[in-house]
Amino acid sequence: MVILQSLLFLCFMGSFYNSINSYYSIFVQSSSIETNINSTNNFNTKYEPTWKSLDSRPLPTWFDDAKFGIFIHWGVFSVPSFGSEWFWINWKNGNSKYERFMKNHYKPNFTYQEFANDFTAEFFNATKWSELFEASGAKYVVITSKHHEGYTLWPSKYSFSWNSLDVGPRKDLIGELSTAIKKHTNLKFGLYHSLFEWFNPLYLQDKKNNFSTDFFVTNKIIPEMKEMIELYEPQILWSDGDWEATAEYWKSQEFLAWLYNESPVKDSVVTNDRWGINIGCKHGDFYNCQDRYNPGVLQKHKWENAMTIDRKSWGFRRNAPLEDYFSLKELIKELVITVSTGGNLLMNVGPTKDGIISPIFEERLRDMGRWLKINGKAIYESRPWILQNDTVAKDVWYTHGKTGALYATLLSWPTNNTVTLSNILKMTDKTKISLLNSNELIKWRNREKYIDIYLPSIDNKGEPAWVLEITNFHY
Prior knowledge:
- The protein is of the alpha/beta class.
- It folds into 3 domains: 1-37; 51-378, TIM Barrel (Alpha-Beta Barrel); 385-475, Immunoglobulin-like (Sandwich), CATH 2.60.40.
- It is built from 13 helices and 14 strands.
- It has helices at 2-37, 51-54, 61-66, 87-92, 96-105, 126-135, 173-184, 201-208, 215-232, 247-250, 252-261, 328-340, 359-375, and strands spanning 68-72, 140-146, 188-194, 236-240, 270-271, 303-308, 343-349, 396-400, 406-410, 418-422, 426-435, 443-446, 450-454, 466-474.
- The strands form 3 sheets. The protein has a 7-stranded parallel sheet. A 4-stranded antiparallel sheet has the order 8-9-14-11, with helices on one face.
- It is globular and about 75 Å long.
């Protein structure tokens, strides 16, 4: 991307025609990378338990087409709903804020396990949840099947008395949501799963042995993940909790070979990159790299920006002030930049212990859906263009639509109703420009180094972003 920007700079300094050949060459190369990522899926290959073999698996195209998903962090941590989903470890590690909270509100010698009795989920309605997620414009949903606390939201055989059927809701929460999503929506269903568990004795024993033993992985994690995949057939397996041990300890390559060769979702499942120390941003169907990852420039490998509506927590916080929630405009900006640079946005909500998705989250989801209903052509099934961020109008981001149209998303409305773009976009007599919420054609003017587009002076200024559809152009 740095090379592309440098070449564009040369263009605007008067060397356009000499530079554009090099620029076009780079575009061809980047297009071949994108084509390779989204090549026709060939799942007849037998994948070996090596990164070289596993990384050769083509990304199922549904994931690159989807662009937008909903993340759900729900568990026993939703009961205290204070601080973050890392409540247990923060409390036990002596964080004064958490110790003070427990001293002021709970009896002495209260244990974290006792919170599970109040994880009731009495208002949880899987059908309503699934309908809300579909209304948000999302194309997939990922829920925490088990966070680092070790509590599973399904009755796992490998989680005796620390799961949602044995204690708490007395329900198979994953089963209910999986069924509702598959029955009532066209959304893809995915599961988050933490490899490690803070206080599991088997894990702590392996850790004490510097991971020279693998009792936890062999007897708990591998069979637990296989059970989960076979029961619910998720289209996404979102791994986490990998950072204390190597992929060899986690037996990641062996498990992924089973997932891609033998599992019931072997042809359609996608996984991320959190499979061991130094694996992130290097191996996996798509990269997360880190929480809230948004590089802002085009990436060679498919990636995902997993982020939260609540700026400070993935789990629900009862005491979160309004300013801690991203506005709709900020969320749309995050989506637009992510998609323009080749990523998917996975936007997180944290339900309450009762199973309620609070009004602030619901409002954000429904508003996202309303914007996408009008402007979705610039997002779904789109691909990055040769230029992601306009070099003149910095608040304009591009995507290329499946029909060949170019979409320029404006994150701010110009005060004089005129947006000036880079002339890398070559207009012709047949060029047509319109806003996606209007059939009215927009006038434009070609200058030597710029293009002026005269936006209609209509009452558009309350929207979080606007999309120009441009057809019959050259570059």
